[in-house]
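From: lab user (bench 3)
To: helpdesk
Subject: output format question, protein + iron/sulfur cluster

Hello, I'm new to running complex predictions and I'm not sure whether the block I got back is the full result or only part of it. Here's what I submitted:
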Amino acid sequence: MGFLDARPGFHRTWVYPLQVKGRFQSLRRWTMGALQAFFFIMPWLSFNGRRLLMLDVAERKLHIAGLLFTSTDNEFILLLLLLGAFGLFLVTSLFGRVWCGYACPQTVFLEQWFMPVERWIEGGRGVRMRRDTKGKGTFDWWWRKVAKFSAFAVMSAVLGMTLTSFFDDPKALWTGQASWVAYGAAFVFGGGAFADYAWFRDQFCSYLCPYARFQGALTDGESWVISYDVPRGEPRHKGKRKSPEQGACIECNKCVAVCPQGIDIRDGYQLECTSCTRCVDACEGVMAKMGEPTLVRYSTEVEDSGGSKVRFFRPRTMVYIAIMVVLSTIFGLLLMGRHELAATVSRAPGAMYQVDLEGNTRNTYMLQVENRSTSGDDVQVTVSVDGLPESAELIAIPMLLSEGESKTIPLVITMPVDGERVRTLPFEFVVSTPEDSVSVGASFKSGN
Ligand code: SF4
Ligand code: SF4
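Helpdesk reply: Thanks, we reran it on our side. This is the complete output you should expect:
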């Protein structure tokens, strides 16, 4: 077992995928290009002085398209995560592992950055295979490896820094002015990228990625998969078809040579297959020369067994769509009713109540207030009580909160002793700004 190989006792066969061209590769280049543009440009985009997308871990704030979610907005974060998960379930049930083949960062950066650089420095599939066997240990082998891994280290550092830019100020980060925590995060992200793209590669999809493990549960007989046309292809044979009994597959092995997962799609659908469509383009090119349609293509189990056309709306997809509609509706309703102020109150640790020298009962609370507005202005926060007798006296320190700021202040309520009063009196703190007001329930204790 080599360093960072996935399974102890498992001898890894290094995969040398052959370069391939075709209509699906062109389509992938466009989608991957768009996703890379998103990845590299998004950290620099702001709207009204606020980041379009940023997760500020230190401040526990999430900025999305002008909205600000804080640590008191857990329900929104949960709904967004659930929407993303069910969106992925829906796409997977319809189009199989289209995410893996067209959008996953593992595939995008491996195929668009690391594999081309590897080819440029070490040569194509055949040359690399020869160098790694017959030429291993020679000066030529060494300098190419050093050059390749140096280039990989630089690319991994760029990826690590860019990913960290989603959590910090990109300008400060790229000009050496960010905190050591930010550079530590960039180092960890970059190190992970280097280990993965330089060495772990196909093993990530085959053994580590949890999404790959869920495939069986997310797809059904009508989901798209890459599959080999067995009735047309078999029995396979070398060279041109010599009799009508022979299948169309000429055993050129091109579909296997191009596969970055090192599998043979003719053995049937396999967990390792990331639906990258490289084998489709490979076979399409080979079969075109024979004047025949490709043997490897997008298909479904239903179509392969001679069934009718697949349905977009079927019970599974309808359930996913219904859940997404419900989640989106809840999200929208919560967003419409969302206050720009968030307040929580708790009793100060220690005694439930105290009686002072004048015989007044005193209760102390801790009030946490957060300004969730995105106006950019500081807001003056005032506190009053509602539901207590007029004799109750509130002592509260005035508060000024900037955008996204949260503060905790003590509140003291003093009331004269009244023999008639119940021992627990419920009331509300009313926390207000010139624009908004929220009420938080509390109780005044004057006995246990
Ligand atoms: S079998 Fe085909 S689609 Fe699947 S990973 Fe290999 S090349 Fe990609
Ligand atoms: S590329 Fe097509 S013809 Fe060649 S081995 Fe694969 S399935 Fe057969």
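A quick orientation on your result: Residues 226, 258-259, 261, 263, 265, 273-279 surround iron/sulfur cluster (ligand 1) (CB under 6 Å). Let us know if anything else is unclear.
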